[in-house]
Amino acid sequence: MKKILLPTDFSDNSLNAIKYAVQLFKDQTCDFILLNTFTPAIASVEYMEVASAQFGLLDAMKEASNTGLDTIRKKIESEFKNSKHTFSQISSFNMLSTEIDDLYEGNVMDMIVMGTQGASGLKEVLFGSNTIHVLKNAKCPLLAIPNNFSFEEPHEILFPSDYEVNFQEKHVQFVKKIAKLYHSRVNILHVSYSKKLTDTQEKNRQKLATYFKDTAHLFHMVHNENIVDSIAEFQLKSRINLLTMLNNKHSFFENLFFGSNIKKIGAHLNIPFLVIPSKI
To answer: pLDDT for 163-190, tens place per residue?
Structure first.
């Protein structure tokens, strides 16, 4: 059974991500864990606890959180009736990223699916601050669903890489599972400044070829100095409907998504984005 965590702040975006998750895994036996975290808008945790207890604020927020989770669970169970799916829910007085870390340590989930914008997310912002933090630090695969992206089967998967990672089979296992579910093709894209790979890059490329040998896949090389534009152009040209990357600290992924490129790629990223931690 897959254990999939579904964080929600009760926004339309988070509900859309939940709907995507239950459709993506419609043929899989899954336990979906709905999670809502809540904290008053006060910086100090110690002060929060005292003030909340004094004014009964904590009880009111807890009740609103549980009511919201009940409403979402009933809506999803009604709209997507599926005997393979069970739902549980967690309401927690905690910061989202801290709660996710705690749940992972408790072996609660194998994967996270969440929306890219929060309830107050501005349209021009790619990721809400919560999503960015979780995205960077998640210890299990995380699938981020853009606002208003309606579910479609992920038949074309894009896997960009600079081939600087010493790939292990566990890094691509999750991608292979999704590809098997939907008879998908994996497009491995290398955006290069030079026309020739180094020995290390070639070695890592060969590893990927071995790992994907039983999965439909193609290797692509694009000569361009602008990685963000290359990914966006390839995504549109090849009708990609799932982007996946390995989050390897201080590497391609981090430079691409958390440096100055974040705003640039935000204009283009309108498909689901699967992030695989390198220490999975």
So the answer is: 988 899 999 999 999 999 999 999 999 9
